[in-house]
Amino acid sequence: MSDHPTESPEPPETAPSSEVVAALVANHREFLAFVERRVGSRDAAEEILQAALVKNLDKLDTIRDTAIGWFYTVLRNAITDHHRRTAVADKRLESYATDLEATGPRDEELHAVVCKCVGELATTLKPEYADALRQIEIEGISVKDYADQVGISSNNAGVRVFRAREALRKQVARSCGTCAEHGCLDCTCSRL
Question: Which option is the CATH number for 18-100: 1.25.60, 1.10.3470, 2.60.40, 1.10.1740?
């Protein structure tokens, strides 16, 4: 009796088998070490591993005998994506650092007219931002020399000075209002 009314088809599995989950959990350290060797950072490796697991969680129910091998393939793809994203970000930061270097000599007349309150506002920034602005913008040292001096990469120095400029711009806009938005160089605004 193939059409017996009390028989019902087995429901499809919606969750991964406990064996697959157990195998992945048991290999967590090996997975982490595998990724860390390829990206050079424990923090990045943990993020990549977790993201790969979360992204592929719904696919675990289709895995049976080759869960470990399959997950290594997933991790290799995630590592490749990580390196691509990192390369693009590094290229942008390097370009920004190069642009900072290429701005050439500063305009001494403009430098002499800059509002004194900007210097005072810079002291309200995070110390590393204030230091970056003072050395690069006021003292005129190169981004590369600044990076070497404080022990960071040129890319990180470029990011730091970019963020410092943004933070200072926001401070100037708060303090000077419309004068800052319209490029007023003869600042008479009140001090903080």
Answer: 1.10.1740
Per residue in 69-95, pLDDT (tens digit) is 888 999 999 999 998 988 888 888 788
Average pLDDT over residues 28-48: 92
Greater confidence, 50 or 108? 50
* DSSP label at residue 135: I
CA dihedral 168, 174, 175, 181 (to 10 degrees): 80
pTM, to two decimals: 0.44
Pairwise CA distance, residues 147 & 67, whole Å:
45
Q: Which residue has the tokens 């007023």?
A: 184
Whose CA is closest to 121, among 75, 35, 179, 56?
179
Question: Are 94 and 101 contacting, i.e. CB atoms less than 8 angstroms apart?
Answer: no
CB 26 within 8 A of CB 8: no
